Amino acid sequence: MKMKSLSMVMLAAALFQASTTFAQMPAMHMEHAQHAHHAFAFGRPAQEADVTKTIHVEANDQMRLNFDSMAIRRGDVVKFVVKNVGQVPHEFAVGDDAFRREHINEMKQMAAMPGMAGMEHPDPNVVSLQPGETKTLIWRFDPLHTRNVLFACYVPGHYEAGMYQRIVIGD
Fold first, then answer.
1. First to last CA, the chain
2. How far apart are CA 42 and CA 23, in angstroms?
């Protein structure tokens, strides 16, 4: 009986902690949970079966994203295989300048909140990577309302240190 009571107290404490952390999340982050229905100016998520090319990307602690190819054309479905070869966490995000402004602000707000730093993103255009980790992101570059696409790491300070690449999508 004592063990069951202790388990219930621990469960209640964990639920309370989770609910207070969730309540502190920035409003913008909550809006990102709705991106499944969001129209991006730079394309949309895609499925593995639709992949037309694979591009390998390394994120490193010299604050660089190194691509093995940067040739992307309208309509391509690209599987980005992203590896964090560094010793600190990194991100890989597909976006444009509007997404950059929004996401940098969101990351700064999250970093300032207890328990929020390093949190996974619900955004379909972002992967978070721990040191040594490899993840994939599959993106269809169609429809495009902008041909200027920004690939970046938005961990606070990383974008500002030059951890991004701009690519103009070809026809």
1. 69
2. 31
Q: What is the per-residue pLDDT across 100-121, written as a single tens digit (0 to 9) for each?
A: 888 777 776 776 666 545 556 6
Q: Which two tokens stand for residue 21?
A: 């952390």
Q: Burial of 78 by CB count in 10 Å (0-12 exposed, 13-18 middle, 19+ buried)?
A: buried
Do the Cβ atoms of 51 and 79 come closer than 8 Å? yes
Distance CA 154, CA 59 (A): 12
Tell me the C-alpha distance between 141 and 77, whole Å. 6
Cα–Cα distances in angstroms (integers) from residue 164 to residues 58, 59, 64, 89, in the given order = 12, 10, 7, 15
* Domain boundaries of the chain, sorted by first residue: 2-168
Candidates 85, 147, 160, 95; CA nearest to 121 is 95
According to DSSP, the residues that pair with 90 across neighbouring strands are 129
Lookup: tokens for 86: 């560094």
Report yes or no on whether pTM surpasses 0.70.
Answer: yes
75-89 pLDDT, tens digit each: 999 999 999 999 999
CATH number of 2-168, picked from 2.30.130.10, 2.60.40.420, 3.40.190.10, 3.30.200.20: 2.60.40.420
